[in-house]
Amino acid sequence: MNTLTAIHRPAELLASVLGDPWVANHVAGKFSCAEADDIARALVLLGQPDAAYTFIDGHATGDDDSDDSHQWPDDADSLNRATEYVMTSFADDYPDEP
Fold first, then answer.
1. DSSP 3-state percent helix, strand, coil across the chain (nearest 5)
2. 11, containing H or E segment
């Protein structure tokens, strides 16, 4: 197994769990904002940005701390807000296109 395959498959597995909307909505809010950002950044670095968007959206929905840095309404545009947040916050972490 080459190194790329050895990294790619675990990244897909991690993204399939953390990027699942049900999991994100029930688990991501339990993390602090810094922890949620670190998980989202790791997903971006692993080439799984869609999972990062879903995870941050779930975090924003489930974390109701008054000082939460991911506060936005839980509405039809919440995933778009999460996507914009991740794309802006971690712009330098996106892997270069092959």
1. 70, 0, 30
2. helix 3-18
> Among 11, 9, 76, which Cα is nearest to 50's?
11
Angle between helical axes of 33-45 and 49-62 (0-180°, round to 10): 170
Determine how many CB atoms are found less than 10 A away from the CB of residue 39. 19
Domain boundaries along the sequence of the chain:
3-93
pLDDT in tens, 29-86: 899 889 999 999 999 999 999 999 999 999 988 766 666 666 766 666 888 888 888 8
CB 25 within 8 A of CB 63: no
- Residues 15 and 48 sit within 8 Å (Cβ to Cβ): yes
